[in-house]
Amino acid sequence: MLKFGKVMAIALSCMVFGVGIGFVQGEIVARSADRIEQIAFAGGAAMIGGEVALFLGPILFYALHRRLLFEQVCYIAALSSVVGCVAAWVLSIRPNGPGWGSMLVTPIAAIYFAIHFARK
After folding, report:
1. How many domains does the chain have?
2. How many alpha carbons fall within 13 Å on the CB side of residue 14?
3. Most exposed: 16, 54, 60, 88, by fewest CB within 10 Å?
4. Residue 25 burial (CB < 10 Å; 0-12/13-18/19+)?
5. How far is the C-alpha of 44 from the C-alpha of 21, rounded, in Å?
6. What's the pTM value of the predicted model, to 2 decimals?
């Protein structure tokens, strides 16, 4: 039961990070749309970010044999957020650009940074 609680705590914490990162990226991608469309797009991006992080976080944590400290998890979330937001901005510079592609960049960045910090 204690193991299940740990997995759930990790999964829910990662989901909260993912929701926040997805929402911010959605706001960046839809920045030129009407406000109601921007909020709708950001809400959808938040849901996708939360769902991806709900599974990706625990998978990375246990695949890396629990070698990540809380501080490192915070670094991973912050760096992934920055990379994702920059990707969202760059990919959505053109009107109707492929800004949605930033949702693929962010999990890849999270995987890269998790492996990087686990090796230190």
Report:
1. 1
2. 25
3. 16
4. buried
5. 12
6. 0.88
Alpha-carbon dihedral of residues 57, 80, 70, 12, nearest 10 degrees?
A: -40
Q: Which domain holds residue 109?
A: 2-119
CB 101: neighbour CB atoms within 10 A? Answer: 14
In this predicted structure, the answer to whether residue 108 has a pLDDT above a threshold of 90 is yes
**What pLDDT, in 10s, does the model give residues 4-39?**
998 899 999 999 999 999 999 999 999 888 999 999
Per-residue confidence (pLDDT) for residue 96, from 0 to 100: 80
CB < 8 Å & 24+ apart, contacts of 8-14? 10/57, 10/58, 10/61, 11/54, 11/55, 11/57, 11/58, 12/54, 13/57, 14/53, 14/54, 14/56, 14/57, 14/58
H/E run at residue 20: helix 2-29
